[in-house]
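Section handout 9: paired folding examples.
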Amino acid sequence: MFRRILIPAVITAGIVSLAGCGDSSPDSVLSLAGADRSLAGGSSGPVITLRSNLLPTQVSGEPTEPLDVFAGNGLRFTWSAKPGESGSPVAGFGYAVDDTSEWAPFSLENTEWPPSIKGEPQFWFPDAGPHKFFVRAIDEEQTITVLVAEFVVFLGPQFCSETERFILVVLDTDPVPLVANGIWPADYPDVERALVDSWFEGYDFQLWETGGTAAPPVSLMNCASSTFWIHGSDVGAGAASVLESYHLAGANTLQSYSAAGGNIFLAGIRPSEALRWFESADDGDRIRQEYPVAFDETLGGASWANWVPHWAATRLPLAEVERSVGGGRSDADALPRITVATSAVTGGPNPYPELPWDPARWTGLTRGFGYFDFAVRPEDGEVIYELNATGTSLGVRRLIGPGVRGNAVFVGFHPYFVEDSAFRSLVRAVLIDFGEPTDPER
C-alpha cells in the first residue's frame, strides 16, 4: 500500500466574546482566539456558518477536520450568522483574507467573498501553500465572534512536470458485507490487488487502499494525472465508503481534482448509492435522493434551485441514474442481470471492448451478475456501455482530449464480475484516451 507522511493543515472555528473587554480590535480578537480555544464553548456572541465550494461547511464553536484542497475551479466563501445565547440580533459582518491587517468594515451586506458581480459568482484562485480566511460577526450588544479557516492549497496535476505525474489507483473497498454473503472470496483484498497489477502492467501507477474510511491525501493526488477509482463497498448493506463520505460532509476532493485537470475513471459496486446526496446551498444539509436520481436537476431545475450543483453532472458526466440493482441470490429473482456489457464505442481509432461476465466469479447464477447502476444518462457526454445489447445504458464518458484535461469515464458496475482480459483491454483504451504514456522503465 502506498502511503505518504503528511503535515496536516489546521482548520479552526474560534469564537471570542469581547463584551466587557477593554480592547476589541481585530488583532486582540485573533490573539484571544489563538490563546484560548476553550472560550469558544462559552461565548454568547453570534453563531457563524461559513460555506465554501471547496471547504466543508464550518460552524463557529463546532470541531472541524484538517483539510488540504485543490483550487482548480477557484475558491469562494459565503456566510451567515444567527444570534448566540444572549439573543442579541446580528448587526454586521467583516472578513479578512490571509491576515488581519485589513478587515472589511462591519456590514450586514458583507456575506460573500469574492463579491458577486451583477449576480454572477466570482472566485479566488490562491497560490499554492497555506492560506487563511477570517469572518467575524458583531451583535447589537457589541459581542464579536470570529471564525478562522486555515487550509493548504494544491494546484493539481496540470502544474506538475511530466516526470512527476503518475496514475493513481484507489481501491475504495470495505469488503465485509460482500464476503459475508458469499459474493466475494475471503481473500478478496488480495484478489483486487492482483487485478490492479494486471490492468496497469507497464504503467507508472501508485495504489491507495481506503478500507472504506481512509481517503487518499490531496498531497498524493496533486500530481496524479489520472485517478482510477474502484468503488468496492456495498453502501446499501452498510459498508463504509470514502466516495459516500465525500457527499455526506466535508469537501468533495474528486470534484476539485477534476477541475484542476485530473482525469477520473469511476467504476464499482453501485456507485450511485454513494453519489446520491444533494447539498442545500442555504444550510449545507445533505438529503439522500430516491431513484431515479437526476443529478442535472441541481444545475438549475426548478425543484432544486437552492441546491449545490452536483459534481456527477458537472464533472463525471452523469445526468441521471434511473435505477440501482442489488445482488439477489438466485436466478429465480426478477432482478436484471448483466450477461455482457455491450460496447457503444465500436469505431474510431480507440474502440472499447465488450465486457462479458465471468461465471466463475459468481457461482450458482446463469443469467449474469448484479450490483450495478443502469439507465444512466450522460450530461454533455456519450454512452459507452449498454446492458446486454438492449440499449439501456450502463456507462458514460466525457472526453475533452488527451492529457491532463479533466476527462471522465463512469462505468456503473464492478470489474471483478467481468472477464479479466476484457476489462484490462478497457483500462488500456481509457489510458490512451487520457493520454497516459507507458512507463519507459518497464
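Moving on to protein 2 of 2.
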Amino acid sequence: MTKERAEAALFAECAFTVREPAEDGQFHYERIWVDGRESDGRIHTAHPPVVGDIIGLRDRHTGRDGMFEVVMRQWSHAGYLSAAWPYGDPRPNSGPMVEIIVVPAEGVFRNAAPIPDDEDQT
C-alpha cells in the first residue's frame, strides 16, 4: 500500500443531499455537488460534520449556495476483500463514505436580537 493510499483511508468521503418537504409527509432530495480536489462532488475530511452542525455549501453545477443544518448521517465502510480493501492490505485504500442529509438553515446567529445603537443607550 502506498503512502498516498494509506492517507486516503483516513478521510471520510462526504456527500451532501438537501432534504425539503413534499406532499403527504414525504421529502424531495437534491444532491449538492461541492468543489474539491478529487472533483467527485464530495468533501474528503477527517472531521465530517455531525448532526446539528451548520455548514455552508455551494453546488458547483447549479450555483445554489447557503447555510445548511446536518439532520442525518449514513456511513458505509469498505469490507475486507472488496475493491476498496484488497487481500493482504492492512486497511482499506479509501475512507468510509458518509451520506449527509441537510436542510436549509439560517446559520448560527439565527434569531439574534438587534444590538441597540450607541445613541439609544444615552
